[in-house]
Amino acid sequence: MLPSTGAGVVVVGASVAGLHAAEALRDADYAGPVTVLDADQEPSCDRPPLSKQLLAGVWTREQTQLRDADALAGRGIDVRHGVRAVGLDIQSSTLDTSAGPLRYDGLVVATGATARDLPGAGTRPGLYTLRTQADCLALRRDLEDGAALVVVGAGFIGMEVAATARSLGAEVTVVDPLEAPMQGVLGRDAGRALQRLHAEHGVGFRLGRGVRVVHGASRVGAVELDDESVVRADAVLVGIGARPAAGWLAGAGLDVSAGLACDRYLAAAPHVVGAGDVVDWFNPRYGRRMRVEHWTNAAQQGAIAARNLLVARVDRNPADLVPYFWSDQYDVRIQFSGVAGSDVRVLPLGSATRPERRVVLSGQDGVLTSVLAVGVDQAFVRARRMLRRRTPMDEAEATVRTLLDGIEPRTAESTDPVPAHPSAPRRAGSSTGP
Ligand SMILES: Cc1cc2nc3c(=O)[nH]c(=O)nc-3n(C[C@H](O)[C@H](O)[C@H](O)COP(=O)(O)OP(=O)(O)OC[C@H]3O[C@@H](n4cnc5c(N)ncnc54)[C@H](O)[C@@H]3O)c2cc1C
Fold first, then answer.
1. Which CATH number fits domain 127-240: 2.30.30.40, 3.40.50.150, 3.50.50.60, 3.40.710.10?
2. Cα(211)–Cα(228) distance, integer angstroms
3. CATH for the stretch 9-114+243-315
4. What is the fold of 324-405?
5. Protein residue closest via CA to atom 28 of ligand 1
6. pLDDT digits over 222-279, tens only?
7. What percent of the chain has pLDDT over 90?
8. What is the rounded CA–CA span in Å between residue 79 and residue 219?
9. Measured between alpha carbons, how far is 51 from 79 in angstroms, rounded to an integer?
10. Ligand 1 atom index nearest CA of 83
11. pLDDT tens per residue, range 342-353
12. Which residues of 22-44 are buried (b: 16+ CB within 10 A; e: fewer)?
């Protein structure tokens, strides 16, 4: 339960997790002040379109806005942009900010993650990470001017940017030390099938290679790889992961070694909860700590964390969440849910023209623990339900095989009953939460 000094709840971070938290407070009839701070001067943008629709130029900046400012104000949610949290004193329930100290009755930490820079590459024009609208729009300008793009890192953001850049006609080369794109999630075979899809669209690959140096003084000009080969680059997109934005909490006596450490209820300290990409929490469903950098997790955690702030200890809900993410590349939607187990069963669709299309199930101790679907949304929806019900592996495989036998080709544009997400066009201010 919250103390009620009148200070209200302060949310740090006005993105997916923070705004879902603020709205959940109002949904739970919390009547005190709700103040949301964000270091960014700009209104919060949704990040998934930054590598897809906004980069492609098919959505406007306004369409990527997470929430309508008037709608938030109408619910008594006071959003203050350009205010950075710089420290926290738990004893006195005081947040230190760039605009001065701020007292709170309850605090939600939702400061997300920041993109990792390429070690040793420094900063200069043409060298990008992708986390903000400004990053996206600057990269788009280069691509529209005909830049040759090198993508460093064949993870999901890198591969989405590669696909979008090809749609803009750019020359694209992907560099990664691993053997196949998105290998960590897809495994080597499905990763190679995805590589073929990209190659068919004209993407070049330098896999099994790392970057030695980025050349160019006033702006990037080329990338030298660890085999001394040189790839021309007018622009370089670095997509090598993100780190939790928890450094500002270092002096607060909290564990921030792997993100803000939270318990199963997303509590980090008395009256302090965390949500989203910044959080390293104990997920009771899997009996271990994890940090997830995906949209749906951030939305769900925001809502759970906020409710748990308001209720008595015995009434709190654990964040026993099943991780989920999607990625759109060309007309293919990739979806993954769960945590990979050691019993892996690959169920290809058997399409000669679209060999990447498949479902991959994995399990542990005879029970389904993860589902990966490449280009087959319908089967994914069913398999995801089975995942939540902890279905035996053999039963799950038989069900998915039957589904795949009768399936029609579907694309990323198809409507899909998976929880609504920001890639789906929507009205400004409408809720996109699951
Ligand atoms: C290019 C891109 C594409 C993506 N595509 C997908 C996708 O297709 N599917 C998917 O599932 N996920 C995707 N994601 C991941 C998803 O967007 C994130 O998981 C989600 O944004 C996390 O939300 P969050 O609220 O935890 O943090 P963030 O979105 O990182 O927001 C944190 C906010 O906190 C603010 N902040 C940070 N530090 C401070 C401070 N000290 N004081 C005040 N404010 C601060 C920041 O300015 C920021 O606005 C993508 C991410 C990117 C970057």
1. 3.50.50.60
2. 9
3. 3.50.50.60
4. Enolase-like; domain 1 (3.30.390)
5. 112
6. 999 999 999 999 999 999 999 999 999 999 999 999 999 999 999 999 999 999 999 9
7. 82
8. 37
9. 26
10. 43
11. 999 999 887 777
12. bbbbeeeebebebbbbbbbeebb
308: left (phi over 0), alpha (psi -120 to 50) or beta: alpha
Q: If you average pLDDT over residues 166-190, what whole number do you get?
A: 93
For 178, phi then psi, to 5°, come to -80, 170
Q: How far apart are CA 210 and CA 244, in angstroms?
A: 24
Provide CATH 3.50.50.60 ranges for the chain: 9-114+243-315, 127-240
Q: State how far the alpha carbon of 243 is from the alpha carbons of 3, 164, 219, 293, in Å.
A: 33, 24, 26, 10
Copy the structure tokens of residue 305.
Answer: 């964390």
Residue 407 phi/psi, 5-degree rounding, is -85, 145
Which residue among 12, 36, 38 is best mutated to probe the pocket of ligand 1, counting the most ligand atoms within 8 A of its Cβ? 38
Half-sphere exposure of 35 (CA within 13 A, CB side): 20
The pLDDT of residue 412 is above 90: no
User: Cα(354) to centroid of ligand 1, in Å?
Assistant: 32
Cβ–ligand 1 distance for 21 under 6 Å, the answer no
CA of 297 to the centre of ligand 1 (A): 11
